[in-house]
Design brief:
Elements (H helix, E strand, L loop, with lengths): L1 H31 L5 H20 L4 H8 L1 H11 L4 H14 L9 H23 L2 H20 L6 H26 L8 H18 L10 H25 L32 E5 L8 E8 L1 E2 L4 E2 L11 H14 L3 H6 L3 E10 L4 E3 L6 E6 L14 E6 L4 E9 L4 H9 L13 H15 L10 H15 L9 H10 L6 H12 L3 E2 L12 H9 L1 E2 L1 H14 L4 E9 L10 E4 L3 E9 L3 E5 L6 H4 L2 E2 L13 E2 L4 H8 L18 H39 L2 H18 L10 H8 L4 E2 L2 E2 H14 L5 H21 L2 H15 L3
Helix pairs in contact: 1-2, 1-6, 1-8, 1-22, 2-6, 6-22, 7-8, 8-9, 11-14, 17-19, 18-19, 23-25, 23-26, 24-25, 25-26
Length: about 800
Amino acid sequence: MLKDREKLYQIYHTILSMALNLACILTINQFFHLKASIAYTTLLSFITALLIYLFDQNRRNAISYLLLACVIPVSGAIFWIMKVNPVRWFMDILHWCWIYDRTDEMYVKYQANFVVLGVICMGAILFYLITKNQTAKLVLAFLLIAAMIVLSVNKYEINKAVVAIGIFYGLSILIEFYGAYYNKKAGRQEKREGILYLAPVCLILAILSISLPSKPEPIQWEGVKNLYRNVKEQIDNWVTEWEYFLHPVDRVFGVSMTGYSDDGGDLRSGGEVKKDSTVALKVTGAKYSSSMYLIGAVSNEYTGHSWEKTAKDPELSTQDYLLDYSELIYALSCQDPEVLRENRFIERRNYQIYYNNIKTKTCFYPIKTTWIQMRSDHSYPSAMLPNMTFSKAYGKGLSYEETYYDMNLNGEAFQQMLRDADGFSYDNAVEPSKESYELIEDQMIKADNIEVITPEDGLFDLLGKRAEWIRKEYTGLPSSLPNRVKLLAEDITADCETDYDKLRAIEKFLQGYQYTLHPQKVPKNRDFIDYFLFESKEGYCTSFATAMAVLGRCVGIPTRYVEGFIVKFSEKGDDNLFPVKNSQAHAWAEAYIEGVGWIPFEATASFYTVRYVKWKDLPKEGTQVRATYEVPYDEAYIRSLMNQSQEVTIDLTSEKYLNNNDEIIEAVIIFAAAIVVLILFVIMAFLILKLNYKKTYQKSDRNKKMYILFTRILRLLKQEGFTLEPDETIRMLSNRVRDIYHYETVTFKDVADIFMRHRYAGEAISEKDLYKVDVFYHGLFNMYRAEHKRFRIWMEEFIFLAKKSYR
C-alpha cells in the first residue's frame, strides 16, 4: 500500500512537471508566433513527461539505457533515409530562429514545429528535475507568481491555460509545503499523500478561476507603476547629480557623456559603445513625424586625433543661428516664384524640450532655428557662436520652446538650389526677387511672427563678414595630415562640378565603410582619419562624421563636426512626451554653402534614411494637406547595408536598443527555457562539428593535414594582430611576423616556406614537414590558450568549425 502511494506521488509530480512544461511552451508559442496548436503542444508535453517517468521508474534496468542509446542511430537512420545532413539541418533551424521576426512572410511551419519539439523535450527534463527537489519547487512557485504579477502590470495578455496551470501549481505547492510544516510542528512523521487527494481540488479551483466572468481590461496597477517610475526617476536624478559633482568642469555636451568611449576627447581611444537607455531629454511633437537632429556641440578644429572648439567670436551684432536662418531665406527668395509654388522647400516645426537626466551648459537646437522661448525660470543662452550655452550647467527643470524650419534635403528643387549656389559670393550678391520674397514673407515670416534680417537691414554685409569668418575658422587642417587623404578626396570628387555634388560624392563613398559599435583602437602617432580611411575602414558615427568633415575641407569646402541627439517620434512615454535616450546620441558633419548657409550631411549608412526623408509633392491648388514623408530608396545606402554583418548593422536610434519594460518582462518569461535549449543545442552542434573535424583530419593525407593546420595558424595569428590582408601574400605576412613566435626552433617563416613549396611548386608534404607545422601550431595555440579565457577559446573554436563545415 505504501509503495502504491509512493508511485501515486511520483505520478503527481510527473503531471506537475508536464503542466509546467505545457505552460512554458504555450507562452513561448504565443510570444514568438510559432502557431503550434494546443493539441500538438499538449500531446508532446504528455508523451515526453510519460517517457521521462518510465525511464525514471526503470533507471536500474539496462534495457532503459539501451533504448535511450538507440535514439541516436535511429535518428541517424532517419536523416540518412531522408538524405538530410543533420548538422546542416540543425544549423538551418538555428538560422531560422535568428531571422524569424514573427511575420507570416518569414514563418516556416516545419521549422516552427521542430523548435516547439526541442523546447518541450528540454523543458520536460528541466521541470521533472525541479519537481523532485522541494526547494526548487518553492522557488519556482514564487517566480511564477512574480512573473504573472509583472505581466499583469505591463498589460501582457497571457493564455488562460497558462494562468490555470500557474494557479494549479501555486495552490498545490502551498498545500504541500503547509502540510509538511504542520506535520513537522505536530511531531508527526511526514505524510505526503494528502496532496494526492487535494490535487484534483486544486485543479478544479484553477479551472473555475479562469472560467468566471472577468473584465476585458487587466488590472491597471497604477499605484505600483507610479511608485516604480518615481523611484527610478529619483535614482536617475541622483546619478546625474553625482556625475556632475565628480566632473563639474566645463560640462558642455559631448557624445562621451552618453556611452561613447572617450579618453580626454581622443578619437583614437576606440572601445565599445555602451548602450545607455537613460532618458536625457523629453520632447513634444506629433507622432510619426520625421526625425529631428538636435545640435549639442559644434567643433571647428581637427587636430589629427580630436575635435576642438577654438572658433573665435566673429563680433557680429546678430546671433549666429538667426544669421544662418536669414541666409536660407535669402537663398529661397532668389528662386523663381513658380519653382517656389510648385515645390516644397521647407516646413515649419515647433516643439518644446525638457531636460531630464542630464546636466549641462549646452542648449540643444536644430539647424535653421528661428525662435527660442524659455519656459522655465532660467536665463537665455548665449548664441553668438554656433555652440549655444547657458551661463551655468542646468539639469532637470529646464525647459524651452523652439521653432525651426525643416529642409527638404531629398527634394530635387532644394538640391538644385544648392548646386546653383556654387561660386556665389556676397561681394557681388544680387537683390532677391521681389515677388519671391513677398511670397515667402506672406506664407511664412508674417504668419509665424518671426523677424528676419533683410537686405535693407544690412543683410549682405553681415552675411559677407560671417562667410569670411567661416572660411577662416572651418577650413583648417593639421599640417601632419597625410597627403594621401587629400589625394583621396580629390579622386572621389574628380568628376563633380559643384561643391554640393562633391559633398554628396564623399557622403556616398563613406557609406561603403563598415559601421560597428566596437571599433579597434587607433595606434599612437597615427592620424585618426587616415587610419580609418586606409586601415581599419570601420567605426561608429564619430568616425564617419570626422571623415566627411575632413574630406570636405580637403577640397576647399568649409565643414564642421557636430554632436547631438536624434529625436525619433515613434513612441510616447507615460507623460505624453517623446523620450530622447543617451543611446540616441549621434555625430554628423555640416558644410557651409555660401548663399544658403550650413547644410547637414549623413555619411553613416545606418542613419541615411533618418536624414534623407522624401517629402510628398505639394497638393493641388485649393487643397491643404500637411506635409508627409516617405522613406527614400537609395542604391548606395542599400548596398552598404548589405555589406554589413548582422552584428554591426545596428542603428543607435533603433528601438532595438531602447530597453523598455515590455522587452525586459518578455525576456524574463522565456529566459530559462530559451537559454537551456540554446546551450544544449550549441553544445550538441559543437560536439558533432568537432567529431566531423577529427574524422576529416584523421582520414586526410599529409598534404590536407598541413593545409588544415596552416588555416588554424593563420586564424591564431589574426587573433594576435597579424591579419593576412587581401593584397598581401604569405611571404609578406611572414616578413611581418618574422621570428616573434618560435617553438622548438620552428618559426612562422619555416611554416610559410613549407606551405608555399606545396602550394606553388607542387611539392608533397613529408612527415618532417608535417611535424614542423604541427609543432608550430600547438605551440602557438598553447600560448594563446594561456593568455585567454576558456569560454572565448571555445566560442572561437565553435565559429571556426561552423565556418569550415567539416562534415
